[in-house]
Structures are given as structure tokens and as C-alpha cells.
TrEMBL record:
The lineage of its organism: Archaea, Methanobacteriati, Methanobacteriota, Stenosarchaea group, Halobacteria. SMART domains: EZ_HEAT. Keywords: Lyase. This is PBS lyase HEAT domain protein repeat-containing protein. GO terms for molecular function: lyase activity; oxidoreductase activity. InterPro entries: ARM-like, ARM-type_fold, PBS_lyase_HEAT. The keyword Lyase applies. It comes from Halorubrum aidingense JCM 13560. Residues 25-35, 48-104 have a biased composition (Acidic residues). Residues 105-125 have a biased composition (Basic and acidic residues).
């Protein structure tokens, strides 16, 4: 339908017979040429549009939108809306009173009408072959991304089969895979999607085919929704299906999940511990799962457990950080070094220092030494932990900052921790530095000196 886009001429109240004759001749000429005369009935807009004329114009467009049957009809309506927007831009309309929230806003009201009509055009368009392709691809994604139960897999396969049968009747495609592998079903849906795209279906000429295909994809989607997923099962059913309880014979601890957890820990079944941690949402079981990994230490370190703990550590989970230390997880060093200067969170610092020490993180020596310095903002109760971490790491670069702390720090706890750390490093230089404090007034410091002296004597005896 080819709607006219010319503007109304402003009427002066006089009818010119010549003009009427001219119009009639033009219509006759158009008929003789086999052309449509629908354009004569199309709405037009005056050169100087008013609120009233614009609303009348939009009323006419709305009627044409209601009658539109093809994409071409909708294109014409869109073109008329373009004219309406242009006319609105040029129209001299009253502005609303800014001080009156209830004041009329003719321009805003007309803009809203045009916007609503635009949406009406879009809603009326299609459906298109692309919509079918999108629906098929969405179903394929659901099929691939969902964890199905055994029954659910069969139901999903049946839903795909029914769709494939319908699709083969509507377009030129042959895709009927066996049920043994979901990947085959996914590939089959991909084949149908490609066939639909290649068919280049026209929204008007192939409307019935597109509608039938969309009805089939709706049925496919409903079938997949009805098929049983793992998430539909109760947690204990999921665990049972995945063999979590298979380790149980006679058990005395309740809940039974805890009994199974203990057995999996004893057998080193890290994957089952992680399964329980992911499936069981109680704080009780979460704590016991994490404690199991903590006790297992390096035995509990797998790619999966490391990924889980690192994720928690990145959220400053102190228990997870502690477990990473027991695992000696070097992969955690980069994350943990960032927490060394967390002066506002002393508890996080303490667990981080210890974990870095247990890992033996050489990259943490300088950051830890910085926190050991009395001029740092680190709490006096935290700085001894920095010293002990340096001792656990055992890097000789820490000797000088530890010696300075032993000699100058005002806190006996820090000094004693520095002495302990130097003994852990254990070189003759480190031991001799500590041994010098045998007459120290502080008992805890002199105790470290006496132990260092004994170590030196033992070394001399074996030399």
C-alpha cells in the first residue's frame, strides 16, 4: 500500500472547479496506467500543523496501522510517522507552565502518541525467519547448559525429536540423530536453524510456515521446561544419585551427610567434599567441609578445591585463607600479598601473615618486613605475626629487618617473635644475632637467645 506523504494545502474556503477537474484527470490517468489510487485517501498534514491537526493526523495513522496486513503496509505507516515527527518539530505549540506540575503539555502528549504508534508498528511486524532461528538456538543452549537427570534426558530428547519431525515437514531439512548423545541432538537443532536461515523465509509470503515453525519451537521449549533437571531434585536425591552416600555402611554420626563426609575425608575424596560443600547449604555442613579440607592440607589441594578457596579468599574469607596455607598453595600469594597492608582489619592481617609464612612466599618478604617496622600503621598485636611469617618463609633477606626489630622495638612480643624468626632462618649469622641477648631483661627474649646459643653449640660440636 503506497500512502501519500504530501502535506495538506491550507484551505481558503473557496473551491476551484479547475483544481477539482485537474484532480479527476490525474486519477483517471493513474487508473489508465494500472496504478493504485489509494494514495488519494492517505492522510496528509497541513504546512502549519496545530495540536488538533496533528492529533487528527495520528488518528488516521492509527486507523491505517489497524488495517495494515503486510510489511509494506507497516513501512508506509512508519513513513507517515516520520512526517508526523517532522510536523511536530515545526509546530508552534504552547509550552507547559514549569511551575504547574498538572499543566497541559501538548508537545509531550503528541510525542508519546507517536512513540506508542512506533511501538505498535514494531509489535505488528513479523514474525520473521530470524525469530525461528533465535528460538531454536535458545533451545539448543538450554539442552547443552542444563544438567539433566536420566529421565529428564529422555524427555528432552523426545521433545527434540518431535520438533525435528515437524520441522522436516515444513522446510527442506533432514536431521534425525540417535539418542545416545545429547551433542547429536544439539547438532541436529543447529542443522535445522541453518536450514531455516538458508530458506530466507519472507514475513508475508511465508507467514504460515514461520508461524508453524514458531509453534513447534514453543512446544520444544515447553518440553524442555517439563523435562527433569538436577535442580528439580531434592538435595539428598542429587547426592545419592552422584554416589555421595556410597561410602556408608554402618554409621553412628548424624546427620548422615556428616558421616559420609568423614569417610570421604579419610579416603581423600576431595571431589565429594566439594560436592557436599556446594550442595548442602547448612552452616554446620559448610564448616565441617572446610575443616575437612583444612585437615587434609596438601592432600586436599586439587584444581577444583584451589579454585573454590581462591574465590573465597578474594572475598577476604579468613577460613579459606587459612586452608590455603595448610595446602601450601603458592597460587594464592598474589592475592594474599594485597592484604598485607590491610591495617584496618588486624584479624585479616594475622591470618594472611601466617598463611604467607606457611606457603613460604618469597614475594612476601619485603611487604612483611615493611609491616614489622615500628613506624608502620600495623597494630602492635599484629607485628609479631609479621615477624613469625618471615621466620617461616626462611629467606635470609629478612635477617636485617628482624635484627633491627630485636634490637630496637619497644614491644617485647615483637622482639621475641623476631628472635624466634631468626632462629627459624637458622644461619650462623642469624643465630649469633639472637644469642647476644642472653642477659636480656625480658624473659621471652632471653629464652630465644638461650635456644639460639644451644643451636650454635650444637653446630660447633658437629663441625
Amino acid at each position: 500500500m503506497d500512502y501519500a506523504r504530501s502535506s495538506w494545502c491550507m484551505s481558503n474556503g473557496d473551491d476551484d472547479p479547475a483544481d477539482a477537474s485537474e484532480g479527476a484527470d490525474a486519477a483517471d490517468d493513474a487508473e489508465d496506467a494500472g496504478e493504485s489510487t489509494d494514495a488519494a485517501a492517505a492522510p496528509t498534514l497541513p504546512d502549519e500543523a496545530t495540536e488538533e491537526s496533528l492529533n487528527e493526523y495520528l488518528d488516521d495513522i492509527e486507523a491505517l496501522l489497524d488495517d495494515a496486513e503486510t510489511e509494506a503496509d507497516l513501512d508506509d505507516v512508519d513513513a507517515l510517522l516520520d512526517d508526523a515527527e517532522a510536523g511536530l518539530d515545526e509546530a508552534d505549540l504552547p509550552e507547559p507552565d514549569e511551575d504547574d506540575e498538572d499543566a497541559d503539555d501538548p508537545r509531550g502528549d503528541l510525542e508519546d502518541r507517536i512513540s506508542d504508534l512506533r511501538e505498535g508498528v514494531e509489535d505488528a511486524r513479523g514474525p520473521y525467519g530470524e525469530d525461528v532461528v533465535d528460538a531454536i538456538e535458545a533451545a539448543a543452549a538450554t539442552l547443552e547448559d542444563t544438567e539433566w537427570t536420566a529421565d529428564g534426558r529422555d524427555d528432552a530428547a523426545n521433545a527434540v525429536d518431535a520438533f525435528l519431525e515437524t520441522a522436516s515437514d515444513l522446510i527442506d531439512v533432514d536431521a534425525f540423530p540417535a539418542h545416545e548423545d545429547l551433542d547429536d541432538l544439539i547438532d541436529a537443532l543447529g542443522t535445522v536453524a541453518e536450514a531455516v536461515a538458508d530458506a530466507d523465509l519472507d514475513a508475508d509470503a511465508d507467514a504460515e510456515t514461520i508461524a508453524a515453525l514458531l509453534e513447534a519451537t514453543d512446544a520444544l521449549s515447553a518440553g524442555l521446561d517439563d523435562a527433569e533437571e538436577w535442580d528439580d531434585l531434592e538435595t539428598h536425591e542429587q547426592l545419592r544419585a552422584q554416589g555421595y552416600y556410597d561410602v556408608l555402611g554402618h554409621y553412628k554420626d548424624f546427620p548422615v551427610e556428616w558421616s559420609a563426609l568423614k569417610e570421604h575425608e579419610a579416603r581423600g575424596n576431595v571431589d565429594m567434599i566439594l560436592l557436599a560443600l556446594d550442595s548442602l547449604t547448612s552452616d554446620f555442613m559448610e564448616r565441617h567441609c572446610l575443616e575437612a579440607l583444612e585437615r587434609m592440607g596438601k592432600r586436599g589441594k586439587t584444581d577444583a578445591s584451589l579454585e573454590m578457596l581462591l574465590g573465597r579468599a578474594e572475598k577476604r574469607d579468613q577460613f579459606a585463607i587459612s586452608i590455603l596455607g595448610k595446602m601450601a598453595a603458592e597460587e594464592a600469594v598474589e592475592t594474599l600479598v594485597e592484604y598485607v597492608e590491610e591495617d584496618s582489619n588486624p584479624q585479616l592481617q594475622k591470618v594472611t601473615f601466617k598463611t604467607l609464612g606457611e606457603i613460604g612466599a618469597a614475594d612476601a618478604v619485603q611487604p612483611l618486613a615493611n609491616e614489622l617496622h615500628p613506624d608502620s600503621d600495623t597494630d602492635d598485636l599484629v607485628r609479631p605475626h609479621a615477624a613469625r611469617a618471615l621466620g617461616l618463609i626462611g629467606d635470609t633477606r629478612a635477617i636485617d629487618p628482624l635484627a633491627d626489630a630485636l634490637a630496637e622495638d619497644e614491644s617485647d612480643d615483637v622482639r621475641a617473635a623476631a628472635g624466634w624468626a631468626l632462629r627459624q632462618i637458622g644461619t650462623q649469622e642469624a643465630l649469633e644475632i639472637v644469642a647476644e641477648y642472653g642477659d636480656e631483661r625480658s624473659f621471652i627474649v632471653s629464652t630465644e637467645a638461650e635456644k639460639a646459643e644451644r643451636s650454635l653449640d650444637a653446630d660447633s660440636a658437629t663441625a
